[in-house]
Design a protein that fits this description.
233 residues, alpha/beta, 3-stranded parallel β-sheet, two-stranded parallel ribbon, 8 helices
């Protein structure tokens, strides 16, 4: 597992109290108060007195297991359902030629207020800093771009991603549901008055964002794009 302290090509929210930061900042206080058996939480208010609330969590990935852990600490009866014959979700490792190979995420992007890093420390996972390497980008013909050109394309993509987060966060209520992240990319590239060939090349790089979220930018909603906000990195 690799810990990355700084990433020059990643989105960082300019607002220290963005929606996700507000949630993270309030997490510890909420968790500490919910461990009190007498705490008037919503669950305890809706369940008849004397009966222990029973919770079912669907999916034994990182989110599901963490949810079950937090709920279990409050004394709730928690059951986790998983369709696979293993836990971990996208975090999965197999042996290839006698060596462990990660099939899922193995990076921790950002180390400031990142709960994933806290969990890694809690279980004693080995972490190591990741080196900053220039991006290796190929054009549609399969030719490797020069380091300078690749760097420029990468920085443009991440710059537009940051603009998209800010725009979605501020104007989510008024953005049409059918407007996609791809539409936003095209609009911003047109505003930069770049040659058509350059726009197409950068748009190709922009499509790599789909690799981060597991879906194409054609299907990514700009209206709800703020929900994809990452944690420091």
């Amino acid at each position: 597992m690799e810990g990355r302290a700084n990433c020059s090509h990643s989105y960082k929210s300019p607002d220290p109290m963005s929606r996700i930061n507000q949630d993270l900042n309030g997490h510890h206080s909420r968790e500490s108060s919910s461990t009190d058996p007498e705490s008037p939480t919503m669950l305890r208010r809706i369940v008849p007195k004397g009966r222990k609330p029973r919770i079912c969590v669907i999916g034994a990935g990182v989110a599901g297991m963490r949810c079950a852990q937090v709920l279990g600490r409050t004394g709730l009866d928690v059951t986790v359902l998983e369709a696979r014959d293993r836990t971990g979700g996208r975090m999965h490792q197999t042996l290839l030629g006698g060596h462990p190979v990660d099939h899922g995420p193995n990076w921790i992007h950002g180390v400031n207020q990142n709960p994933i890093l806290d969990l890694a420390k809690e279980i004693g996972a080995t972490t190591m800093p990741a080196p900053e390497l220039p991006p290796s980008i190929y054009d549609q013909a399969g030719h490797l771009l020069s380091p300078e050109e690749g760097q420029k394309c990468s920085e443009l993509m991440w710059g537009i991603i940051e603009e998209a987060f800010e725009y979605s966060n501020k104007h989510s209520a008024s953005i049409p549901q059918e407007q996609s992240l791809l539409d936003f990319f095209k609009l911003k590239l047109e505003e930069k008055d770049l040659p058509q060939s350059t726009q197409e090349r950068i748009l190709q790089v922009c499509r790599s964002w789909g690799d981060y979220i597991g879906g194409s930018i054609e299907k990514q909603s700009l209206k709800y794009f703020w929900l994809e906000e990452t944690i420091d990195g």
